[in-house]
Amino acid sequence: MHKSGKKDGMDGLIAALRQLEQAKQQARTLGIFTDDRELLECPSCGLLEDVTAEGVLVTYPKDSADLKDCGLRFKRAGEARFECPTCGTRIKAVIS
After folding, report:
1. Per-residue confidence (pLDDT) for residue 37, from 0 to 100
2. Which domain holds residue 55?
3. How many domains does the chain have?
4. Are 18 and 46 found together in one domain?
5. How far apart are the C-alpha atoms of 3 and 95, rounded to whole Å?
6. Are 50 and 94 found together in one domain?
7. Which residues contact 73 (CB under 8 A, 6 or more apart)?
8. C-beta of residue 57 within 8 angstroms of C-beta of residue 33
9. pTM for the full model?
10. Which of 31, 23, 26, 25 is nearest to 72 (CA)?
11. pLDDT at 73 exceeding the cut of 80
12. Are residues 56 and 21 in the same domain?
């Protein structure tokens, strides 16, 4: 394979990765968990994330009797850190 073939292949790969990232961002906007990190649980207040059978990200208190989504979402606070919307604790996420 000559140099231009490698460049064309690399350009195609870069374009595909950009499209994948756009699709993941659209999914996140719709509330769908994209499985690019572990689910979060606040060690201070117990708020935790879960995913429904449809792939929608939900949160609820750890000791909740009904596992109904409370509507709160952990906020990104850096590359691999998130902030608990209930108590403000910062949590390091495990990125997959």
Report:
1. 87
2. 32-96
3. 2
4. no
5. 34
6. yes
7. 57, 59, 85
8. yes
9. 0.69
10. 31
11. yes
12. no
Rounded average pLDDT over 16-44: 84
Show the tokens assigned to 80: 């691999």
Q: How many CB atoms lie within 10 A of CB 12?
A: 10
**Residues 59, 20 within the same domain:** no
Q: Residue 66 pLDDT more than 70?
A: yes
Reported in sequence order, the residue ranges of the chain that DSSP labels E, i.e. its strands, are: 47-51, 57-61, 75-76, 81-83, 90-92
Task: Kindly report each contact of residues 84-92 with a partner whose C-beta sits within 8 Å and lies 24 or more positions away, as own/partner.
Answer: 84/42, 84/44, 84/45, 84/47, 85/47, 85/59, 86/42, 86/45, 86/47, 87/42, 87/44, 87/45, 87/47, 89/42, 89/43, 89/44, 89/45, 91/40, 91/41, 91/42, 91/43
d(CA 32, CA 18): 19
Tell me the average pLDDT across 64-77: 89
